[in-house]
Design goal:
The chain is an all-alpha fold and 148 residues long. The chain has helices at 15-29, 39-46, 50-54, 57-70, 83-117, 122-125, 143-146.
């Protein structure tokens, strides 16, 4: 007799199922559903496991928003940043990336100059590498190493 738990068969979640769960969560967010929102209550309403529900990013996000709304927590819903702020953020990121590229350019110039001073041919350094030789190697231990 097997002591392992029997797993219940749960059908695959399809797009229509996801939409149905999202509508259910939206009703909970608006306060139209009775009781407290928990993963168990959502499992019972949808027929899917908590793991299956939480694995869908849209459902997990909607659950967090609905849960926050039920607690009166408005921090979950973020207002989009103003367009000017987005532009400033992107410009700042572009400047950071330009700085990184400049540091790599400086390093490359330093390496090529040093290689030329050491007598290395730059064209030779730029050649493709040979693929590594991969061979089966059998390690045999000697009787001395086994006695340690």
């Amino acid at each position: 007799m097997s002591t392992s738990k029997r797993r219940r068969k749960v059908p695959k979640m399809e797009a229509a199922d996801i939409e149905r769960v999202l509508r259910e969560l939206d009703a909970w967010r608006r306060g139209e559903q009775p009781g407290r929102l928990t993963w168990k209550s959502l499992e019972d309403a949808s027929g899917f496991t908590r793991q299956a529900l939480a694995s869908k990013p849209q459902i997990a996000e909607a659950y967090g928003i609905a849960k926050g709304a039920s607690r009166g927590d408005v921090r979950r819903v973020h207002a989009p940043k103003p367009e000017a702020q987005l532009v400033d953020d992107l410009r700042r990121e572009i400047d950071q990336l330009k700085g990184i590229v400049m540091r790599y350019d400086d390093r490359w110039m330093r390496w090529t100059r040093n290689a030329a001073q050491l007598g290395y041919d730059i064209e030779r350094l730029d050649e493709h590498l040979d693929p590594p030789a991969r061979a089966f190697v059998r390690v045999v231990r000697s009787k001395m190493s086994q006695s340690r």
